[in-house]
Structure prediction request, 379 residues.
Amino acid sequence: MAENEDGSEKTESASSKKLSDAKKKGNLARSKDLSSAALLIVAAISIYGTGSLLVADLIRVFSFNFIIERDDLFEIERMVFHLYESIMGVSSSTVFLMGVLAVAGIIGSVAMGGLNFSWEPLMPKLSKMNPIAGIKRMFSTQSLVELLKSVAKVVLVMGVAYIVLNLYLVEVLGLTFQSIDLAIAHGVDILIWAFIFVSLTLILIAAIDVPYQLWSHAEKLKMTKQEVKDEYKQQEGDPQVKGRIRQAQRQAAMRRMMSDVPKADVIITNPTHFSVALQYDTTGGQGAPVLLAKGHDVIALKIREVGNFYEIPVIQSPALARAIYHHTEIGDEIPEGLFKTVAQLLAYVYQLKQSRRFAASDPGPVPPLEVPDELKWEG
Prediction:
């Protein structure tokens, strides 16, 4: 089981973030054997398909260079001409083959892991120059597996090559008794089939290497439980930090709310557990009274203290206070069902303010403030 540098076991599969980070760094599951197998098999098929063209080009080049005039041997220009003609003579068959091999090489490289561009592997790293780390890599499990794979490939390819040579040995020896044109065509045919058989052996190695590379890549990217927790904290935020942020946000909202209390026209209380502060601005085109602040217990007491300090009327109406508290958010208008009741209350408050301002007679007790049954809160 994979272990971290501190000895903790990596038991958790890589997260999507770690996989994404690894991809950005160019760390993907790749199989060199798959790329090699794809390249050689495509090359073998391409050579087999263009074998007749290749044979014709080779015959023409050989015939052109085997018959050279004596005077040409002493003329540099003529020898350069022979070289140029020889290159051009095989270009028709080799250019197509090279193009197919280039495409096969690209496809084989990205067949496993997909297409990915990253400058990270090219960046110089001092850790790569550490001789101790280099020795550890030389004797690591990965190096041992690569060594065994190399030995297996050599043994397998040599075994198949030996079998193919035995199969075609008689035909190879018989080439000496054939004409030049026929020997070239027959020899190229033997080479093509031998190349095809040897290339096909790499499919077996690739079939073993691909699952191993996928498993090895997943093992290298595994995470410890602590790494999973740390990553979650980075993405979602530390719960303690988030708690402090929420607390600071609540405190800021509380300060803003308490700063609006002096603007209220009336404060309605439970009388001890709930307090709500209402404002009705007739000059601003306000449709209905708006809830400026609300709170229970300590906050309710604080709202009443601010109201008393600014001489805002504080009216006790438990049913109305609970109804507004539970059915209205700060900054919203009160429910339509409470319009009539609050209008009666505001009319009483207006009379109360007038009596205080002009030392007139007290308007008397608060009128009955009825709350519709659907807005009552009995919790």
About this structure: The longest helix spans residues 180-220. DSSP finds twelve helices and four strands in the chain. The first strand starts at residue 266 and ends at 269.
